[in-house]
Amino acid sequence: MKIAYRIITPILAVGSVLLGFFLKLFYFAIGTADESLSSIIQIAGALGVKTNYEFSAYELITLLLGMEPAKEGSKSFAELAAPVMPHIIAFVVFFILTLLMFLAVGAVAAATEKRNVVMGMCGGGLVLCFICIIIAKLAFDKLLGGELSLSDLMGVFSENVGMQLLAAVVTITSATLSSGFYAVFGMYILVILWTVLTNMLIKTPIQVQKKHRRKKPMKKLSAIFNR
């Protein structure tokens, strides 16, 4: 069981890092509370105009490294996202720490038998996840409060005129963390449960109980013939 733990746990750790980095991390939906405009959004969606957006950590880092606007003369993503840029940077830093913690969990699990240390590190990883949730909530509140120009922000991602016009009459109606983040969060819990189970099996291994049947004593041949 010890060998299985030292093999499986690093695999879970590396897999979690890959999931957190490449799966979608944020989900955004645009819409309107005005019923008279809801039909316009439905028509736009039917014509292929996106109303839902998701970004992975990889895509977010690409944007932060200076993605140029799609439309010539429009502002860059960093300029448009200035109101929430401190939150974005803080989130990226803490989320990277969360992923690095998972790599450390895998290294400790593979190199040592300190499973209690692994559980403690997973607990630290969960704390980092909760910090990320708080930072994301603060950023989402600003987005939903309309502190970013949605029409200008669309220029970063597309030159589609229809999308530009749509952005003028809609707002961000939903902003949440997506599957990539919750995959990392859930994997931390999974590793903790896996470690607890491993400790239990090592301390009290499952043993197959063999039932010993008592053989009947053989009668002497003389006793058989004397009957």
Largest sheet: 3 strands, antiparallel
Number of helices: 10
What is the share of helical residues? 55-70%
Counted beta strands: 3
**Assembly annotation:** single chain
Unreliable residue runs: none
Shape: elongated
Indicate the mean pLDDT: 77
| Strand content bin | 5-15%
Instruction: Record the strand order, biggest sheet.
Output: 2-1-3
C-alpha-based Rg, rounded: 29 Å
What distance lies between the first and last C-alpha atoms, to the nearest angstrom? Answer: 59 Å
H-E order: HEHEHHHHHHEHH
Question: Strand pairing plus helix content: what structural class?
Answer: mainly alpha
Secondary structure layout:
Layout: H1 2-22, E1 24-31, H2 35-46, E2 52-56, H3 57-64, H4 77-80, H5 85-111, H6 115-144, H7 150-157, H8 161-167, E3 171-177, H9 179-203, H10 221-225
Antiparallel strand pairs: 1-2, 1-3
Describe the structure.
The chain has 227 residues and is mainly α. Helices cover 65% and strands 9% of the residues. The chain contains ten helices and three strands, in the order H-E-H-E-H-H-H-H-H-H-E-H-H. The chain has helices at residues 2-22, 35-46, 57-64, 77-80, 85-111, 115-144, 150-157, 161-167, 179-203, 221-225; strands at residues 24-31, 52-56, 171-177. Strands 2-1-3 form a three-stranded antiparallel beta sheet. Helix 1 (2-22) packs antiparallel against helix 9, helix 5 runs antiparallel to helix 6 (115-144) and helix 6 (115-144) packs antiparallel against helix 9. The termini are far apart.
